[in-house]
From TrEMBL:
UniProt name for this protein: Histone deacetylase
Phylogenetic classification of the source organism: Eukaryota, Fungi, Dikarya, Ascomycota, Pezizomycotina
Record-stated family: Belongs to the histone deacetylase family. HD Type 1 subfamily.
Annotated GO biological process: epigenetic regulation of gene expression
Keywords carried by this UniProt record: Chromatin regulator, Hydrolase, Metal-binding, Nucleus, Transcription, Transcription regulation
Length: 459
């Protein structure tokens, strides 16, 4: 069935470039809590759509390893990582005492849940692996939908984000390229990535987001946030923001994105681009307040891909709190990466197809009109004058940008691939050891909890 679907959609490997798809199924199994809007199950829906359309035949598929402590410490502080690795949900007093230090707990957006540390390592490992595929020239476009958690700070969890996999991936890219452009289309400001690269001219950050400091998280990302005010600092004018109001529509967003992103690519001339595709900017999102349809959201991926011109491209996930529409968007954007055109009617053999079938859920279509199937359409508060002012602001900031950053690059060692293979093997052995230790601990816990030998034998 999948082969027939792939044939019907004309799916084949793209000519002239390679695409890699990175995931770890274990990341899909985690749960933030019953009432929490972040649902890793959206990754399962996305993967099943991708596989059911047959898009895997056009890509190299990698099931990735969890990130190691040392890899995470390339950005995050050791004391924060140690806390993440040790804290458990039943340590309520410890959590409460450390909330103001590390940002985890019921007072904020980042709960402590079972398997939290494993989840962090899984999505971060996938982004690191995707970046490594790019720098080793195994792929021209690499995709990790489990990544994109852009709010996490060096030693602070924030906005559902514990580890900033984007920063870790960009650090990988910077080992072989002088300049990386980071573009963020999540409805929330990419504050963690902006903060991480605030004082460098090797990374330009460009974030499109809803901006309302009084009522909308994180309250940062005004158009005057352009980097350090001290013009001697290399990062001055390298943090660019496009603050939006409620209700922007497809045509407005596409026009704004094309102008601002195109100008940044032309002036900054990056050798790699990282595109964060947070799907909470879609219409009908549980938390978002835009009116974008899936193809308008995907237009951003298509535009960046077309303008890449032999630049490495990393495509990652992000926010998105209506899982069926997140899956639709990321499946569509996967098809754009490989140059495929998908049929609107969802394949009959898709697992969990019922999640898409009712009229209010899109009627079994990949591209439903989101404004017609939701009561969450928001009033459009943009006028032409405001949108033009945003374009002008980006153009003005780019006048200060130099084409060459203040860094000299060294060539990547010829034995990089060998080093990578050895590291992968070491990580795989470590993961097997951890699995054995985890199973042994679970076994001992079960034994301890049984009341007597008869219960143990029954088990």
């Amino acid at each position: 069935m999948i082969e027939r679907e792939a044939d019907a959609n004309g799916i084949e490997r793209p000519k002239g470039y390679n695409v890699s798809f990175h995931f770890n199924s274990k990341a899909e199994q985690h749960h933030f809590g019953q009432s929490h809007p972040m649902k890793p199950w959206r990754l399962t829906l996305t993967k099943q759509l991708v596989l059911s359309y047959g898009l895997q035949f056009a890509m190299d598929i990698f099931e990735t390893l969890p990130a190691t402590m040392d890899q995470l410490a390339a950005f995050h502080s050791r004391d924060y990582l140690e806390y993440l690795s040790r804290i458990t949900p039943d340590q309520s007093e410890v959590i409460a005492n450390n909330f103001k230090i590390f940002g985890l707990g019921p007072e904020g957006d980042c709960p402590v849940f079972d398997g939290m540390w494993d989840y962090c390592r899984l999505y971060s490992g996938a982004s690191i692996d995707a970046a490594r595929n790019l720098i080793s020239n195994q792929a021209d476009i690499a995709i990790n939908w489990s990544g994109g958690l852009h709010h996490a700070m060096k030693k602070w969890a924030s906005g559902f984000c514990y580890i900033n996999d984007i920063v870790l991936a960009i650090q990988q890219l910077l080992t072989v390229v002088p300049r990386v452009l980071y573009v963020d289309i999540d409805i929330h400001h990419g504050d963690g990535v902006q903060h991480a690269f605030w004082s460098t001219d090797r990374v330009m950050t460009l974030s499109y987001h809803k901006f309302d400091p009084e009522t909308f998280f994180p309250g940062t990302g005004g158009k005057d946030e352009t980097g350090p005010k001290n013009l001697v600092n290399p990062g001055a004018h390298y943090s660019l923001n496009v603050p939006l109001h409620d209700g922007i529509d497809d045509a407005q967003y596409e026009d704004l994105f094309d102008h601002c992103t195109g100008a940044c690519i032309e002036k900054f001339n990056p050798q790699a681009i990282v595109l964060q595709c947070g799907a909470d900017s879609l219409g009908g999102d549980r938390l978002g307040k835009f009116n974008l349809n899936i193809k308008a959201h995907g237009h951003c991926v298509d535009f960046v891909k077309r303008r890449s011109h032999n630049r490495r491209l990393l495509v990652i996930g992000g926010g998105g709190y209506t899982p069926r529409n997140v899956a639709r968007a990321w499946c569509h954007e996967t098809s754009l990466c490989v140059g495929a055109t998908l049929r609107n009617q969802l394949p009959a053999h898709i697992p969990y197809r019922q999640a898409f079938m009712s009229a209010e859920n899109g009627g079994g279509e990949l591209y439903p009109n989101l404004s017609h199937i939701t009561t969450r359409r928001h009033e459009n508060k943009h006028d032409k004058g405001y949108l033009e002012s945003l374009k002008k602001n980006i153009d003005e900031q780019l006048k200060y940008v130099e084409n060459a950053p203040s860094v000299q690059m060294q060539e990547i060692p010829n034995d990089y691939i060998k080093i990578r293979e050895e590291e992968d093997e070491r990580m795989r052995d470590e993961e097997e050891d951890r699995d054995r230790e985890r199973l042994e601990a679970q076994r001992k816990k079960r034994e301890k909890n049984f009341g007597g030998r008869a219960e143990f034998r029954a088990f």
